[in-house]
Design goal:
Elements (H helix, E strand, L loop, with lengths): L55 H4 L14 E4 H9 L11 H7 L9 E4 L9 E3 L2 E2 L1 H9 L3 E3 L8
Parallel strand pairs: 1-2, 2-4, 3-5
């Protein structure tokens, strides 16, 4: 087998149809677009149009809404933090914050803050200063001798 022997299989490629090249070609004049009308013109793409029937996206009911005030947290499991400690990427004496986790390569970006979840176990005494943590995660951290500092909720006036 040589490089100059390589070829596509028969029928794998099709030659381009040359449109609008005279009446004898079979696809001259209107070039296979029929006559007149919206779709005979250039630049037409009628997505979602169902020939006058009510389109599917209008037949279905509207549901839900998008909360513009919702916070998007980066979630980190206790197992992931323990793995970073075992790999000596995190310092056990320092307070664990979002910036520390990003610098250690545990997470890629902090978004609106970091939330700790209780997947896995933690064996090291650590101090956390994060945006959120599950109840089970807080229990596991405190059982290992650590502490969790969460931001205070805004006082309702």
């Amino acid at each position: 087998m040589k490089l100059n022997d390589l070829r596509d299989k028969d029928g794998a490629t099709h030659s381009r149809k040359r449109l609008g090249r005279g009446i004898g070609s079979g696809s001259g004049k209107t070039a296979g677009r029929g006559v007149k009308g919206q779709k005979a013109r250039s630049g037409v793409a009628v997505n979602g149009f169902e020939g006058g029937q009510m389109p599917l996206y209008r037949r279905l009911p509207k549901r839900g809404f998008n909360n513009i005030f919702a916070k998007s947290f980066t979630v980190v499991s206790l197992a992931r933090i323990q793995a970073a400690l075992d790999a000596k990427k995190l310092d056990a004496k320092a307070t664990v914050t979002a910036d520390v986790l990003v610098a250690a390569g545990v997470i890629r970006r902090a978004k609106d803050g970091v939330r700790i979840l209780s997947d896995g176990d933690i064996k090291t005494k650590l101090a956390f200063d994060v945006a959120g943590a599950s109840k089970a995660a807080i229990e596991k951290i405190e059982k290992a001798g650590g502490s969790v500092k969460l931001p205070e909720k805004a006082a309702a006036e």
